[in-house]
Amino acid sequence: MTCNCDKPCGSYSTGELNFQTEEVCNGQTIQIYKSFTECDPTITLQLSNFGTCPFTFVVKQNKQEQIIQINPNQGLNAAFDCVKAMKVRCSNSGGENTCAVSVRFQIHGCISCCN
Fold first, then answer.
1. Which end of the chain has fewer surrounding CB within 10 Å, N or C?
2. Of 49, 57, 108, 113, nearest to 85 (Cα)?
3. Residue 78 and residue 47: Cα distance in Å, rounded?
4. Tens digits of per-residue pLDDT, 34-48?
5. Alpha-carbon distance 22 to 41, whole Å?
6. Are 68 and 39 in contact (CB under 8 A)?
7. 3-state secondary structure 23-91
8. What is d(CA 68, CA 58) in angstroms, rounded to the nearest whole number?
9. Which letter, b or e, does each residue of 53-83 get, where b requires 16 or more Cβ atoms within 10 Å of its Cβ?
């Protein structure tokens, strides 16, 4: 796990973190994670769409950005290295449709980098 530095120092892993929300589908963006250390971590996650409209999961990594559409009653189980940020963009279908997101994730990373 050496995405932004040659020698990581002070490794850590969090317990499982949970996040769940249910809102009207009006195109909003929901920030799930933003990097808080010098060395960007690896994140393992389970993401579920239990709503009635699709949403887009966006993960910004050290050298790329991945965009994955998650339809209703679908999910994603994955691990991503060098994560800078993760967010969900709900569709803009309005009406009585709901953007319902459930996320479980764990962070594995380095507190700082040594030169």
1. C
2. 57
3. 9
4. 987 777 888 999 999
5. 27
6. no
7. EECCCCEEEEEECCCCEEEEEEEEEEECCCCCEEEEEEECCCEEEEEECCCCEEEEEECCEEEEEEEEC
8. 7
9. bbbebbbbbeeeeeeeebeeeeeeeeebebb
